[in-house]
Amino acid sequence: MATLAELAAARAGLDEATIDHLLRLTASWSLLADLAFSDLVLMAPEIVGAGAEGQLVVLGQVRPNNRATVITADLVGTAHRADDWPLVRRALADGERVTGYASPEVIGEPTLVWAVPVRVSGTVVAALVRLQGPMRGPSSLYEQAYLSIFVRLCDMVAASTFPFREDDVAGPGLPRVGDGIILLDGAGRVDFATPNAVNALHRVGVSASVEGRTLPELGLHLRALERARAFAMPTLEELDRGIDVAIVFHCVPLLEAERPSAVMVLVRDVSDLRRLNRVVLSKEAAVREVHHRVKNNLQTISSLLRLQARRSAERETRTALLEAERRVRSIAVVHEVLSREPGEDVSFDEIVRSLVLLVEDTVLALHPVEIVVSGELGVLATDVATPLAVVLAELLTNAVEHAFVDFTVGDPDPVGVVTLRLARDGEHAVAEVRDNGVGVGADFSLDAPTSLGLSIVRDLVRTQLRGRIDVTTMGPQSGGGTLVRVEVPLVAWR
Ligand SMILES: Nc1ncnc2c1ncn2[C@@H]1O[C@H](COP(=O)(O)OP(=O)(O)OP(=O)(O)O)[C@@H](O)[C@H]1O
Ligand SMILES: [Mg+2]
């Protein structure tokens, strides 16, 4: 099915600015349909093409929430002979609102029809058509009040002052069944308030009868109301009473000759919504706290390992314990970052910074080595970030630990350099750890059972991350040393 924008461009030949205006109109016209207790249809003359002369195309259609619809069919995109809609044709031609009874084919019986010209930059581009179903007896006070607002809004549509240009500020938005409405007259006195509006006012502590009084007299001081009047544009304000009550007041000025002559205040009780938000926020805080505790626990484990290492007499045991301590800490780094910004995703570049510090901390004292990081990976799913952090910690440690065995502290030349290059390559994260040291040797194989470090790396990359890893010894002409390239797919992790 074609959208309003597509129909307006292709069938009615309207330009972008006009289409934008119509989109803003239809964004809030569900409110209009409710105020009119009627179906609304937006019609525009179809551009003259083969057989389209004198035809109208329906760009949009909306049904009221508070009445039964009179149009069961989906009219959007259908074409109609202008002769069958004489009121619409007149409104389009004269630029005035036309009302009367008609029997449109789509309804099949006499119906009250209003045709309201939609004016954009001085030109009538379409007609907003109200099709009213049978009224049940004489209309109530509240129906009359709704209709009086509808009439004012129709005048604004014809005068091009509705929809508001500043819609992104606070257009009437999508009204919901249950929104209350307060109509304030030119002097700011309550003309009428719907029962739902009165309920909402009760909730913010206004229990007096409201008719004929101004909101400040009732103890409600809304800056939004003053702004709506002063700037002739819609405004929003939320009033909270304690933590249980939250009411949003949406002030929509009703303009006459571009000056506000009245204000429609839509009143929405959002207490339940706010309560839900609080629950979600406290869940987020809980997740953050969990990461914080996991990090603390990992740090405790790593301290225990360090203590134990210090107490062991054998060098080998001590080394093993210190290695284990470092591995635990590289996992803690990820939780540390997650405890600051919990979620499914985590900023990997922040993790990298901590990892480099960690490696420098642990092994750099052994050798005069420089660690250089270039590029970035941005935000990664935590499922990728945790194993990848461990992998990089192992590779950086290996480079610092093994590549420069021949170098010693105080040796001015040559200086060992380890580079970590990070990049996104399409749907892959690529990390390269490169050193200019001794290289891994000709008989090196990643698949031969080796010591623990590279086994961990291999298993994490291949099995857990479903990626690939290549270890290459660089020839002397390319600077020598070892290049380890890790490539991990990112799509599978969503
Ligand atoms: N960048 C490198 N340059 C030179 N040799 C390396 C490099 N990376 C790894 N190696 C060699 O590969 C071997 C295996 O590495 P691996 O990380 O699996 O074990 P390890 O570092 O010796 O011990 P650990 O289990 O503590 O990591 C190393 O002992 C080392 O000889
Ligand atoms: Mg190692």
Description:
The protein is an alpha+beta fold and about 500 residues long. It has helices at about 5-10, 15-25, 30-35, 85-95, 140-160, 165-170, 195-205, 225-230, 270-310, 315-340, 350-365, 380-400, 450-465, and strands spanning about 40-45, 55-60, 80, 100, 110-120, 125-130, 180-185, 190-195, 235-240, 245-255, 260-270, 345, 370-375, 380, 415-425, 430-435, 470-475, 480-490. The strands form four sheets. It has a six-stranded antiparallel beta sheet, with helices on both faces. Strands 8-7-11-10-9 form a five-stranded antiparallel beta sheet, with helices on both faces. Strand 4 and strand 5 (about 110-120) form a beta hairpin. Helix 3 packs across helix 5 (about 140-160) and helix 12 packs antiparallel against helix 13 (about 450-465). The chain is elongated, with a radius of gyration of 35 Å. The chain starts with a helix and ends in a 5-residue tail after the last strand. The mean pLDDT is about 85.
